[in-house]
Design brief:
alpha/beta; five-stranded parallel sheet
Amino acid sequence: MHKNVTNQSIWNLLTVGKVENNILYTHLDDDTYMIHRDIAESIVENVERYKGMVHIIHSNLGNGKTCLMKYLMCRFIENKKVFMYEEQYPDYEKECKKIANMDGEKVLFFENYNLCLEALEKLRGYLDSTITIIVSCRTFLNINMISKLVKVLGKQLEEDFFEYDINTLSNKEKEKIVIMLNKIKVAEFKDIGKKQGLYRLKKYNQWADIVIYYFNSSEVSDQIKKIYLNLSENPNRLLLVVGCIVNNIVGLNLLASQLFDLLEIQQGNVGYTRDPYINEMIGNLNGKIEMRSSILSLYFIRKYSLYCNAVEVMTKMVRNADKLLPKEAVNVKRQLISISNISELFYKKKLGLEAVPDEDLQDEILDYFGKISDVAYYKKNQFFWLQYAMACMDLEKYEMAENHFKLAYAYAREKNINSYQIDVQYGRFLLERSCKRDIEEKEAFKVFKEAHNLWQKVLNTHEAESYYVYKQITVYEEFIKKYMKYFNSNDFNNTNKMINTFISNIERKKKYSVRYTEIRNVINRLKDSKQFLLNNYLQE
């Protein structure tokens, strides 16, 4: 059934991420509703040309993964059988077999594949050239999780995968956005031409940036402020919305009933299905209660300084996690101490919104880790103490960090668990602490060698996790530049050899990554460090 695009439908799409499928389906290629992304045609072409492949769509928070996935579903439904994964159920494997036995080509969509690895692994035995898999993930998670995706699907990274980074908007896409903003009468774009509109969007290269720009317009910011003020009148309503934000950004994937249990809120006390202000922010689909828009989630937290509220929610969730089934409880406890997730909420300067000032948040985060450290699951959990140590490092509490690293190592040894994740971060700790705070000259090479050896051990024993080491290259360079003046001739020669070893190890591990540009960048930076070492040593 054809349905017209209205200003209200576009407004809902931009502000709260509400996609109306019947409108999308009848306006796939006219750019009057959802902006047609340039990359979409490449994905369609690759799906048609290369059968049975895996396609990964990734971007940072709020840059259009869900919209692109829905667009592609509408494109493929004309000539293929399309399926969207929602959750596992008792007959899931039987369903996989049934889909595999269907005639014709099938396209299976999985949002946030990092949460669907078990389901994808069960699908593995039924894959053939008639089944295409399209998955999405946040960019930073994809970097960390792609090796696990390769493993569970039993495929070859270089032969069976396509990756699509959709973070950056093209000028052609920006032109379409200017036309849309003009059409719905956004004040800053209503009476200007395309050239002037593009100039206003010049510094906004991601979809999320443009939506935040839109949020800051008087029409939208006034609407969101009204929602905030109304929610604030009832602590439970605000708590519920912040809980949904945490659920959304951290990726807990909780059902409505689970969220209410963890937050200790009675559903009848908030009337969330009837409250118009709550419904502006969150939706309930198949029993899952979540924010309608990832961008709105971060905007709401940052705009109204709801940091303490978010920490309160996280604490409640951790302490009440055992109300869930064991597997779900463990997921909540692990996700809510992940520094990557905490950074998404608080630290990263993104979407045109400032990160939370350290002085406002430092005590809150450290108190959070301190208060939950008595939870039974965490007491002797090496992952918890590693994350606690990393939180201390982020806040330059190096004495606390060192203590927590010792505990992380101790509990890993106690359980005979390989400590490669701890090794990566402890190497970073050694170099970063030395760069932030001076150490004795005679200790410089010793510290550098210890960190270097930890990282090379990880490269040699956990090749698929090499990226974790590559991420530390900045502090490696910084240490060399600060302390090489204290190196004697032996230290210099050994450092030169160590850098060569680093480069050769990376060259050998390239097959474990499809990101050759990034690998080459790391190698070039190591070569630059080597040249810096040589130039400055010869000047002595």
